[in-house]
Design brief:
Blueprint: H1 3-13, H2 16-27, E1 58-59, E2 64-65, H3 70-80, H4 89-96, H5 100-113, E3 116-119, E4 126-129
Antiparallel strand pairs: 1-2, 3-4
Helix pairs in contact: 3-4
Amino acid sequence: MTDVQLAELVQERTSTAVKDALRRMGETPEPAPARKARAVAPVREPKAPKTPKAQPGVQYGLGLPGEPAKADLDAVRAVLDGVTAGLPKAELLAGCGLGKAAGAAALAALLLAGEVEKMGAGRGTKYRLGGGNHA
């Protein structure tokens, strides 16, 4: 290959666009440093929910009057005594002869004490004595 042929090959393969791009690449500024990540906030323990103060003489959460009378408790026990299949609440309260609030309070107290057992749920709920202290 002659020098003339070699010069023609170099000229064919030399592009002014490539030369211009190489020149501009050398002129570009340095890239900006990356931003620092934000500091992660420490994880806080959740606050405990505020507990409302119970009013004296009221069982908080049940919305019922305070301690039911012993006679009311005995009336519920007497109706449930000997009932093995359980009674619906309406029949139990009717059998006790107590008002709705007094009967519900006595029933709730006996449930909490473990003397009365609640069976089922919803409209099929029945109550019977559950083996606690029946004094």
